[in-house]
Amino acid sequence: MPVxxxxxxxxxxxxxxxxxxxxxxxVTIWTVLRLINAQRKLEQAEKDDTP
Amino acid sequence: MAVMSFFHNPHRFMAGSKWPAWGFTILxxxxxxxxxxxxxxxxxxxxxxxxxxxxxxxxxxxxxxxxFSYAFMVGASFISFVWRHALxxxxxxxxxxxxxxxxxxxxxxxSVWGYTTWGTWWEWGDARLVSVLLxxxxxxxxxxxxxxxxxxxxxxxxxxILCLVxxxxxxxxxxxxxxxxxxxxxxxxxxxxxxxxxxxxxxxYIAALGYLALFGGLTLLNMxxxxxxxRADILLQRKQAAD
Lengths: 51, 243
What we know:
The complex is a heterodimer. The model of chain A has no long low-confidence stretch (mean pLDDT 90). Chain A is an all-alpha fold. Chain A has one helix spanning 10-49. Chain A is 78% helix and 0% strand. Chain A has one helix and no strands. By secondary structure, chain B is mostly helical. Chain B is 78% helix and 0% strand. Chain B is built from eight helices and no strands. Chain B has helices spanning 2-6, 10-42, 56-83, 88-118, 127-148, 152-166, 169-179, 198-242. Chain B is globular and about 70 Å long. At the A-B interface, helix 1 of A face helix 2, helix 3, helix 4 and helix 8 of B.
């Protein structure tokens, strides 16, 4: 019985690029949100600290 | 040494790092989009690996930069351990999540590329694959140590020791394809007899520079967030003590 070899790799390549884009975009968004939260927390703490 | 002394003061670091942090992040995104775009749409199919070769523009820079990220953390941990530099711990801690994501991207894309080339998603007997997986776990362990210890001082010390011990894995990853029988191909970009053409080299180097700039930018942004959070915690503790 002949063995069929799938030679269309487009879906795998697209998936690889999607992983790269999601990973890099994800860590970028996470970092920016972390920075915004830290900035808000500091502003609040400085406001509370003002006599 | 002069740069180290200059940035010993977090105020000075905060004043001088804002624009470089955003600049490197934006530059990184632009270079990565360009590198991925050229790699995906413009690079011709390889004579052996056809369109599968296009995965290298995502996978290879991720692997280079995950090792670079860890080497950066080792350097920062060493400076923290020896000179007790105020920002060295913050730098190592800030680089860890970025390095962990690069490693995860490298592992997943490597697995997909491996399946289309070797016919298997994973091979436990392969030293390159297993040593990179170990690096990923070291990144996670390093992040966990920071969260698990009672005080930031103890966490910094324990995390620095873990990071320095884990450094032994970096040369193992790099030389694993030379030392052990491996499904993974040997180094083709960093050798003098490399036959890779400019059509492949150009998007590869653009993407790699993008990953490097993004690493620098995100590490600086994370450092800024860490310093702001520490400052806010100190102010809150001071207020609680006064009340």
